[in-house]
Amino acid sequence: MSLPPILIDDASVARLAGELGDEGVIAVDLEADSLHSYREKVCLIQISTAKRTVLVDPLSVNDLSPLAPVLADASIRKIFHAADYDIRCLYRDFGMEIHGLFDTMIACQMLGEARVGLADVLAKYLDVNLDKRYQRADWSRRPLEEGMIRYAMEDTCHLHRLAEILEARLRDMGRLSWAEEEFALLEQVRPSENSGPLFLRAKGAGVLDRKQLAVLEALLQWRDEEACRRDRPAFKVVGNKTLLGFAQRMPRNLHDAKGIEGFSPRLADRYGRALLGVVRKAAALPKEQWPVYPRGERRERDPAVEGRMKVLKKVRSAMAERLSMDPGILVNNAQLEGLARVCPSNMEELAELGILKNWQREVLGEELLAELGRR
């Protein structure tokens, strides 16, 4: 299989956009450098028509805007596999929206596939074996190796055939409308806004007292600055568990820090004194500057709600078994809890609540209402 062209200038991207405007279906994927840079960015965009694959290099092209109308045109189907991340990245970096989505991973979930990774699905349906050695590669490096180019091409060049097979199966099983509703919802996802203290995004911070929390926030702020300075992902500077250990123990010297998870001799040599300095300074803050971990309102334990949850889970499990679907894909626990608390009495009320999607109400609504009516 010959290597696809890599477009590196504005004129070639504009020509490509004109060609894609005449296509009915395109397959799209992207590669980013989240494992290698402080601020991740899209480093490659792969686009396959039914006849050829083209790679676009966003690190070389100044103007990708000609592609935006194509991606936003709902009359042109866009095939992705696991589109959530890609949709967020394209909007974040280029303001691009995706309409006309067909997500082959969601299609597989609706079909009840146990393994929905692209490699697994292509192996099952097309007898194609993907080489995943470049899955964690640094896509910001140039020039791209031949193996990386082939890897990128493989992520889209088979999607046309795969989507045709999956769509036919969905239609035969009466589940195409389920998938289409999920596609429409996925088109609307956007990057999350990270605001507020950094400790809110650190697992385990909720168990710390206020002084320890002040220390952890200072350590996280220090790490963020160091990661930015080195253009590295924060977790590659110092791991979260190590910083949490420093905040809990608040060591006064390197001897006190021994045994903290992840605090290796190499890390001690490089950052030991800096970490101790951050701890010392943060621990000296006055109490009025200590942060408070926000606690959600604790709901009183309600045996009636717990009882309804139990029976609703049984309904879900039985239906999931009949449909050969993952119970969590069929309906998640948060949705069931919402129903258990509100306890709707009919389909009209169930629809007005907006807790379940249309296809979920179609599949499960009557049975869930029947069980709630018995409680």
Lay out the secondary structure.
Layout: E1 6-7, H1 10-20, E2 25-32, E3 42-48, E4 53-56, H2 67-72, E5 77-80, H3 83-94, E6 101-103, H4 104-111, H5 118-126, H6 146-157, H7 159-172, H8 176-186, H9 210-230, H10 240-249, H11 254-257, H12 265-283, H13 303-323, H14 327-330, H15 333-342, H16 347-353, H17 358-373
Parallel strand pairs: 1-4, 2-5, 5-6
Antiparallel strand pairs: 2-3, 3-4
Give, in spatial order, the strands making up the sheet with the most strands: 1-4-3-2-5-6
**Portion of residues within helices:** 40-55%
Mean pLDDT, to the nearest integer, reads 96
Largest sheet at a glance?
6 strands, mixed
Which radius of gyration do the C-alpha atoms yield?
25 Å
Q: Helical region count?
A: 17
N- and C-termini, Cα separation: 62 Å
Low-confidence stretches: none
Main structural class: alpha/beta
- Overall geometry comes to flat
Report strand %. 5-15%
According to DSSP, the number of beta strands is 6
N to C succession of SSEs: EHEEEHEHEHHHHHHHHHHHHHH
